[in-house]
Amino acid sequence: MRRPFYYRLSEGMRISVRPQYLPGHSFPPLQRFVFAYDVRIENISRRTAQLMSRRWLIYDSIGEELEVVGDGVVGLQPVLGPGDVHEYQSFCVLKSPRGWMEGEYFFRTLDNTTFAAIIPRFDLIADAEMIDDEERL
Question: Which of 36, 30, 84, 34 has the alpha carbon at shortest distance from 60?
């Protein structure tokens, strides 16, 4: 099965996300569904910008919403010049096998101009066959 791919271009930054369900780290009987996501941030503009902070909205299909705000990404505040790319991987835990995430990265340019690049909304969907197999264990 091919992993889905999501991307969005805004403010000269192309944000690509590729999520995946991690059955080996999940435990459905206790409502623990773990998802990893690979992120690629590409600066396709002519300006240099530093990623200062992020804002995520995480929605779980049981109706819970969580907002996560913080500095940088995975402990870094990368500077991206024209044509530069920054990639990282992170994860989230849901209480149900379905949900979604979306958000924004906040950047600052060399002249102290700030802007937000949109992180595309992406689906988090556990494979039903994997959940059924784990529940039989």
Answer: 34
* DSSP, res 23: G
Q: In angstroms, how far is CA 81 from the centroid of its own chain?
A: 22
Distance CA 13, CA 124 (A): 23
pTM of the complete model beyond 0.85: yes
DSSP-assigned letter for residue 32: B
* Maximal CA-CA distance, the chain: 58
Q: In this structure, how many other beta carbons lie within 10 angstroms of the beta carbon of residue 20?
A: 19
Q: Strand 114-125 relative to strand 98-109: parallel, antiparallel, unpaired?
A: antiparallel
φ and ψ at 24, to 5 degrees? -70, -20
Pairing of strands 114-125, 65-71: unpaired
Q: Tens of pLDDT along the chain (137 residues)?
A: 577 899 999 999 999 999 999 999 999 999 999 999 999 999 999 999 999 999 999 999 999 999 999 999 999 999 999 999 999 999 999 999 999 999 999 999 999 999 999 999 999 999 765 444 444 33
How far is the C-alpha of 109 from the C-alpha of 80, rounded, in Å? 10
